[in-house]
User: Which sequence fits this backbone?
């Protein structure tokens, strides 16, 4: 099997369900609403990949990329269920649409934009959800994380095979995006590193430039909801 086939075989299908709202970590609420507003990037990332499929991506990657597009639709649905349960902040929603427009308009290759968003933004938001979210958000973030690991590996391989790299202006857009999301934490640290703006900004930089963030190693053991924390109807369905 080629590397793309190996990644495709690692996938697990899951079906999002409507969750019920719980308590968010005190001090993280405004940041979580901003991070949830960035869910509006899920479908554009899928569109970036879909548009790339109409061009010159490696033939060996096509089946995996098509599967990844379907994942983005599922992620958008799952995060929509979260916002149904805990609500949204209308000002954050409007500002997130402006950021989405900036990403859509940026001239870098579509695969490169998808890689940067997923590796250096989504990979930061998902562990932040696991440490600071309610039970439903922690479960959804874990399921999305498994998909995103495949997506980032896929897009990294495609960029390597096509000789693509990001521009300085795309990196600036990435920094502006993650800074906007984490800005409320600058006044809500309280000695908790998971409420520290710098902690999450450093994580984004490390993921962007090094492909890994040592400070996020603890997120592998971030507390996940026990089954008794959920009504049975709130648990995702796996196949």
Assistant:
């Amino acid at each position: 099997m080629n590397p793309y086939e190996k990644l495709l075989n690692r996938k697990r299908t899951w079906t999002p369900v409507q969750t019920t709202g719980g308590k968010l970590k005190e001090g993280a609420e405004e940041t979580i609403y901003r991070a949830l507003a960035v869910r509006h990037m899920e479908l554009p990332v899928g569109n970036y990949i879909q548009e790339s499929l109409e061009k010159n991506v490696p033939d060996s990657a096509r089946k995996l990329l098509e599967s990844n597009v379907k994942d983005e639709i599922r992620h958008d649905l799952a995060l929509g269920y979260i916002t149904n349960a805990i609500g949204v902040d209308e000002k954050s929603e409007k500002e997130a649409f402006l950021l989405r427009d900036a990403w859509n308009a940026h001239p870098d290759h579509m695969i490169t934009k998808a890689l940067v968003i997923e590796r250096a933004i989504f990979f930061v938001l998902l562990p932040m959800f696991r440490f600071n979210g309610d039970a439903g958000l922690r479960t959804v973030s874990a399921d999305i994380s498994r998909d995103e690991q495949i997506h980032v590996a896929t897009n990294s391989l495609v960029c390597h095979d096509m000789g693509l790299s990001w521009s300085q202006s795309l990196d600036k857009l990435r920094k502006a995006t993650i800074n906007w999301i984490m800005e409320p934490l600058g006044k809500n640290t309280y000695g908790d590193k998971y409420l520290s703006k710098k902690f999450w900004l450093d994580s984004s930089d490390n993921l962007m430039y090094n492909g890994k963030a040592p400070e996020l190693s603890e997120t592998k053991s971030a507390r996940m909801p026990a089954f008794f924390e959920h009504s049975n109807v709130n648990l995702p369905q796996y196949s």
Observations:
- Strands lie at 14-15, 237-238.
- The first helix runs from residue 3 to 9.
- Confidence is low (pLDDT under 50) at residues 220-235.
